[in-house]
Design goal:
Blueprint: H1 3-21, H2 52-58
Protein backbone atom coordinates (compact mmCIF):
# COMPACT_ATOMS: atom_id res chain seq x y z
CA UNK A 1 0.00 0.00 0.00
CA UNK A 2 1.35 3.43 -0.81
CA UNK A 3 1.50 6.43 1.51
CA UNK A 4 -1.33 8.25 -0.21
CA UNK A 5 -3.74 5.45 0.73
CA UNK A 6 -2.37 4.71 4.23
CA UNK A 7 -2.46 8.22 5.71
CA UNK A 8 -6.25 8.72 5.34
CA UNK A 9 -6.83 5.31 6.94
CA UNK A 10 -4.62 6.20 9.91
CA UNK A 11 -6.33 9.58 10.37
CA UNK A 12 -9.80 8.04 10.12
CA UNK A 13 -8.88 5.34 12.62
CA UNK A 14 -7.50 7.90 15.09
CA UNK A 15 -10.62 10.07 14.76
CA UNK A 16 -12.93 7.10 15.39
CA UNK A 17 -10.93 6.00 18.42
CA UNK A 18 -10.97 9.50 19.92
CA UNK A 19 -14.66 10.04 19.35
CA UNK A 20 -15.66 6.62 20.66
CA UNK A 21 -13.56 7.05 23.80
CA UNK A 22 -15.65 10.03 24.88
CA UNK A 23 -12.66 12.05 26.06
CA UNK A 24 -12.05 13.97 22.85
CA UNK A 25 -14.87 16.44 23.60
CA UNK A 26 -13.86 17.23 27.21
CA UNK A 27 -11.00 19.11 28.80
CA UNK A 28 -8.30 16.96 30.42
CA UNK A 29 -8.52 16.58 34.19
CA UNK A 30 -6.18 18.80 36.18
CA UNK A 31 -5.38 17.92 39.79
CA UNK A 32 -7.38 20.63 41.55
CA UNK A 33 -7.42 24.29 40.66
CA UNK A 34 -3.86 24.89 41.89
CA UNK A 35 -1.82 21.78 41.01
CA UNK A 36 1.44 23.62 41.75
CA UNK A 37 0.52 23.98 45.46
CA UNK A 38 0.62 21.30 48.14
CA UNK A 39 -2.90 20.59 49.48
CA UNK A 40 -3.64 21.83 52.99
CA UNK A 41 -3.57 19.18 55.70
CA UNK A 42 -1.59 16.46 53.90
CA UNK A 43 1.17 14.73 55.90
CA UNK A 44 4.69 16.09 55.52
CA UNK A 45 8.05 14.54 56.34
CA UNK A 46 9.83 17.01 58.59
CA UNK A 47 12.92 14.99 59.39
CA UNK A 48 14.71 11.72 58.81
CA UNK A 49 16.51 9.72 61.48
CA UNK A 50 18.59 6.67 60.62
CA UNK A 51 19.60 4.58 63.59
CA UNK A 52 22.53 2.18 63.88
CA UNK A 53 20.47 -0.75 62.57
CA UNK A 54 19.63 1.19 59.39
CA UNK A 55 23.33 1.95 58.77
CA UNK A 56 24.31 -1.65 59.50
CA UNK A 57 21.77 -2.85 56.95
CA UNK A 58 22.78 -0.21 54.36
CA UNK A 59 26.46 -1.13 54.74
CA UNK A 60 25.88 -4.87 54.23
CA UNK A 61 28.79 -6.41 52.36
CA UNK A 62 31.09 -3.41 52.84
CA UNK A 63 34.05 -3.41 55.19
CA UNK A 64 35.82 -0.53 56.92
CA UNK A 65 37.47 1.65 56.00
CA UNK A 66 34.44 2.71 53.97
CA UNK A 67 35.15 4.64 50.79
CA UNK A 68 34.38 8.36 50.82
CA UNK A 69 31.72 7.78 48.16
CA UNK A 70 29.54 6.03 50.78
CA UNK A 71 29.05 9.31 52.66
CA UNK A 72 25.92 9.90 50.57
CA UNK A 73 24.16 7.72 53.17
CA UNK A 74 24.31 10.68 55.56
CA UNK A 75 21.98 12.57 53.22
CA UNK A 76 19.78 9.63 52.30
CA UNK A 77 16.12 10.46 52.82
CA UNK A 78 13.11 8.17 53.06
CA UNK A 79 12.86 7.68 49.33
CA UNK A 80 13.50 4.41 47.53
CA UNK A 81 17.12 3.68 46.72
CA UNK A 82 18.58 0.55 45.17
CA UNK A 83 21.67 0.86 47.36
CA UNK A 84 20.07 -0.68 50.44
CA UNK A 85 17.93 -3.28 48.63
CA UNK A 86 18.89 -6.67 47.27
CA UNK A 87 19.65 -6.75 43.59
CA UNK A 88 20.09 -9.78 41.38
CA UNK A 89 21.22 -13.09 42.92
CA UNK A 90 24.09 -15.32 41.97
CA UNK A 91 27.31 -13.89 40.59
CA UNK A 92 25.75 -10.40 40.57
CA UNK A 93 25.33 -10.42 44.36
CA UNK A 94 28.66 -8.71 45.08
CA UNK A 95 27.56 -7.49 48.52
CA UNK A 96 26.31 -10.88 49.76
CA UNK A 97 22.64 -9.95 50.29
CA UNK A 98 21.45 -13.44 49.37
CA UNK A 99 23.93 -15.34 51.56
CA UNK A 100 22.43 -14.04 54.80
Amino acid sequence: MDRARILPLILASAAMTASSAGWADTDPYVAGTTPWERPVGVPMITGVHHDAAWYQHALTGLEPPYPHSIRFLEDQGNWNTPFNRRGMPGRYDIRGWYTK
